[in-house]
Amino acid sequence: MDILLIVVNVVVFLGLAPLFEGIIRKLYAKVQSRKGPPIVQPYYDLIKLLGKERLTPGNVAFKLAPMMAFASIVTVIMLVPLGFKVNILTQYADIITVIYVLTLGGVSVLLGALSSRNTYAMVGASREMITMIMVEPVLAMTLIMGALKAKGLAVSTSFFSVGDTGYGWGVALMLVVFLMALQAFVGRQPFDISEAEIEIIEGPFIEYSGPYLALFKYFMMIKQMFYAFLFVTVFMPFLQTGYYLANIGTQLGGILAVVVLISLVGSTNPRLRIEQAVRYYAVLILLSLTAVGLTVYGI
Amino acid sequence: MWLTSKIKQVLLVIKPGTVTLPYPFEPHPVPEGYRGQPSWDHHKCIGCGGCAAHCPARTIFIRDLCQDLRVMVYDGGRCTYCGRCADVCPEKAITMTKNYELATGSKKDLCTTMELFMATCNRCGRCYEMETKNAIDRMNLKGYRYDNLEMRAVLPVCTEQFDTGMLAKSDRFKRPERIGE
Amino acid sequence: MATIQALTDQLKKKFGNAVTGVENPSATQLFIDFKKEKVREICNEVLAQGGRYLVSVGTDNLAKDGTLGLIHTFAFDKEHYFLSLRTATKESEPIESITPDIPNAGWSEREYMDLLGMKFTNHPKPKKLVTADDWPSDIYPLRKEVPFNIKPLAAENVAYQLDECPEGCSIVPFGPYHPTQHEPAHFALFVDGETIKGSDYRGFMIHRGVEKLAQTQISYNEIPFLAERICGICGSVHAASYSQAVEIAVGHKISRRAEYIRTIMLEIERVHSHLLWLGVAGHLIGFDTVFMQAWRVREPIMWLGERLTGNRKTYGMIVIGGVRRDITPELKQDILNVIGTIEKEMITIKNAIIGDTAIHRRTKDVGYVSTEDTIKWSLVGPVARARNVDIDVRRDMPYAAYDEMKFSVPVVDCNDVWGTVLVRVLETFEAISIIRQALDKMPNDGPILTPFEDAVPAGMHGITAVEAPRGEVTHYVITGEENRPERWRVRAPTYPNLQGVPMMLLNNQLADVPIIIGSIDPCFSCTERMEVVDLRNGGMKVMSQSELEALSRNKR
At residue B150, does pLDDT exceed 50? Predict the structure, then answer.
């Protein structure tokens, strides 16, 4: 039974992440008056990429990086409380672990970029690094706020803190900050700076192709779904129904709403320059610190 | 400022809906006067060579096999579809069809070869139209050089893309013995 | 006011017998012959009198009198005429470069070093420009004795030497193939962190030998179709410009109705080109919705072109002597309907983007060039008008039916990329108004095509400019024997504007490179229309897939 919950986690995330990606693409197309690709197109993309030849212009780190990224995100999704229900793995990790393992994914992207030794990949890597340094604090603050509210570092404590102890001004502020940082978390316009197809040609991923690229793409899709999931779980505890399967359903509904928001914001904004984005991130960090401060005083 | 712009953008986007055409699944009609693949009507052609003389891309080539037989070769692989040949044709034997789906695995599918029997003037040895009005005189076009032998010699040089096999074939051209061969 | 008379007098007075001849065949054309020793002084004097440098034309007269000709052309916008300064030099004797004073002449002169073997003294950057890296240094392809299809052997291990990279900077290659550029061109950016400290350009990778071809292979009436294919976006402009140049050189008059139809076609092209650019600009700053929506609005005008001319882009409409197809009353109504819709949609687009601070953040203060520098570098078109330089040949040197059109020339003083966005959006409305006026005033009768009655006489010079969507196109024609021009020089608007790009890039962010290069609406094919086929691997070695892979994997 314990194993079953983990399997459900993995199946739901791995199975549905490309679908949400497909929904985003479809919504982008609708905003752009296009018909757009079929919603299941990302699955086709992944299958096709996985079937292609492996080209490795870099050293062994080049091969290792996508696997590391994929492994790290799979580790995270295995222990998150899908359906508002903790599984056997959840107790072994605390929020620090979650943040570490999530960061490891970003570090793998850097590793792959640096080992490919391409000029554009270098530029992309430096941008990715800046983004990581500036945006990860918002994630950390969100989880720390939960931990402070519910007095415990455990994943379940932090994730369910809002549901357990109720909303407050701190939570409201954090909710807004999280929404503002969402585009940066998932690497969509206006913060797709590190990939920036038209400037640096997908930046860190420029030398990747075939199965390795598929792993990175899959990693990005799952990451996107994870951040939407995190928002829904932490800030929308009212979606709990009391039944496990119904909980999964409501959570997925919440994720869908977040995904719609992501695509609407993404399709109506141009990309920012890195130094403009940094100023924006700095404001976010300040706001999230404020939110944590408010929470400490119980506001 | 920012928000009003975003709202206007969303309004701009909502009105037209989806405009993508279902093209490969449904044919896309083209208007009258469209300049698609040219087609030759051998009933009307008098073999004057005006099209060959005026083709900017030099895709039309005319060669006399003997006193009575003139062969026209059109190499569609390099055609720019300007429609100049149809403009200058004195007999309107060339029409620009509406056919634009020309992708093919073999360049030969785009080429047209036409053989024409010419009546020859007994006095000067040139070909002419056999009716009362002389179309060659009526053409009155500048740069008309259907009998410019030097240019003909240059043609295969200036068009490396020109199918040499086809040229060779037109050199050795033999009438098919049966129709359809 | 340097009128034709005043300028001639001034030059004669100042340079005495260095000026050897003056020709003034029509009110818009002035040709002055002079001795080559005074080239720099005379050009400086012309600049001082208010001339705006256009382009230089090199000619090969070796067979005739053993000289290489050089023609510097200038426009006097306020006085409405073109000035062509003609000089000649012996093959072995160098001529003084005017580039130190007129930076925009740099490319023209480098071109003739490569193509005609001219020698220039004091040129600040006498590097190879046009010919391939491995092109033999003793073959000058534009000379008459060189056949148009010459194919010298390819050489290995020859590469263009980039300019010195400034201290502490690293080189980021931009191109030859890059998603920003729709055509190959290589920008080497010298980057400090993300800030650009300098750049070098190596382009001209797609010469198609258009001018050589026209001078050796095809005839007057066929060149408009070749000219139209110089550019995929502003084809009619080149066809119109070439036809006008020949008509001006010979003094041929076409019917008024044909001139009106030309005007309408040119303006239809402007509407479609500006919408295209707006979309591309959106794409370059990562705003794909603007891209898709602008192109959606543009699509009806492409279909309109199809109905008017038989093709959606390469109209093939304008030929020497007039136009090929008439505008019937039904088509007239059709045009009015289409431009009405487009005007409505354009207003919506304008309102949606004009106040969008997100777009402002990416375009304002990006690609700054001061008004003085713009004039000094002779930038043209929307790039110049966005930098407070009020030039537009439609108004200054009226051609076709523009003399009867009422329109304003939008000029803004933003001096940045945002200014070019504004200028282009406003110009679209002006273009729509011009189409309406032209349809309204067009005479109902008159032939649409007035062909030449006699053969074109040789040795006549003609210069004309047409305002393309990107800026002005200048064509210089010298008529020749054998029913084809002896020299046909095309200067596309990207030619001067691209030379100003390094100046625009300086001290900007790497992320802004696409939009800065995009803001001049670059058309590399237009710029590189010149000369013989440039095949790097003339030998055509076919590589197998594994060989290619091995090559690409072992690149480091």
Answer: no
CB distance C234 to C540 below 8 Å: no
Q: What is the dihedral of CA A40, A44, A50, A52, to 10 degrees?
A: -160
Helices and strands of chain A, counted as H and E runs? 12, 0
Q: What is the pLDDT of chain A when averaged over all its residues?
A: 85
**Helix (H), strand (E) at residue A147:** helix A119-150
Is position C490 within any domain?
A: yes
Strand order across the beta sheet in which C67-76 lies: C19-26, C29-34, C81-90, C67-76, C52-61
Query: Which residue's entry shows tokens 């095949």?
Result: C535
User: Smallest CA–CA separation between B29 and chain A, in Å?
Assistant: 20
What is the per-residue pLDDT across A60-107, written as a single tens digit (0 to 9) for each?
888 888 999 999 999 988 888 887 777 777 778 888 888 888 889 888
User: How big is the B-C interface in CB pairs under 8 Å?
Assistant: 87
What is the per-residue pLDDT across C232-261, written as a single tens digit (0 to 9) for each? 788 888 899 999 988 888 888 888 889 999
H or E segment to which residue C263 belongs: helix C256-284
Whether A268 sits inside 8 A of B10 (CB atoms) is: yes
Q: Chains touching chain C at 3 or more Cβ pairs under 8 angstroms?
A: A, B
Q: Where are the domains of chain B?
A: 32-166
Which partners does chain B have (≥3 C-beta pairs < 8 Å)?
A, C
- Flag if B6 and A268 touch (Cβ within 8 Å): yes
CATH 3.30.1360 is right for the domain spanning B32-166: no
Candidates A63, A199, A206: best to mutate against C (most CBs of C within 10 A) is: A199
User: Could you give the CA distance from residue A72 to residue A69 in angstroms, rounded to a whole number?
Assistant: 5
Q: Is the ipTM of this complex over 0.85?
A: no
Distances (CA, A) of C390 to A137, C413, C430: 51, 10, 15
Q: What is the pLDDT of residue C550?
A: 55
Round to whole Å and give the CA distance between C313 and C270: 12
Total domain count, chain C? 2
Domain contains C175: no
Chains within contact range of chain A (3+ C-beta pairs < 8 Å): B, C
Chain A residues 109-148 within an 8 A CB cutoff of chain C: 117, 119-120, 123
Instruction: Specify the amino acid at residue A81.
Output: P
- In degrees, rounded to 5, the angle at the alpha carbon of residue C262 between the alpha carbons of residues C260 and C263 is 65
Higher pLDDT, C132 or A40: A40
CB contact under 8 A, C194 and A274: yes
Beta strands (DSSP E) in chain A are none
Mutation target among B7, B13, B14 for the A interface, most CBs of A within 10 A = B13
Phi-psi region of A27 (alpha: psi -120 to 50; beta: other; left: phi over 0): alpha
Q: Check CB contact of B12 with chain A, cutoff 8 Å.
A: no
Q: Which chain A residue has the Cα nearest residue C554?
A: A57
CA distance linking residue B146 with residue B52, whole number of Å: 8
C239 and C130: one domain? no
- Rounded CA-CA distance C343/C322 in Å is 28
CATH code of the domain covering residue C141:
3.30.460.80
- Residue C196: inside a domain: no
Chain B nearest C-alpha distance from C52 (Å): 35
Which domain does C482 fall in, by range?
210-527
Residue appearing with tokens 């106040």: C355
Map out the domains of chain A as residue ranges.
2-296
Q: Tokens representing B34? A: 């469209």
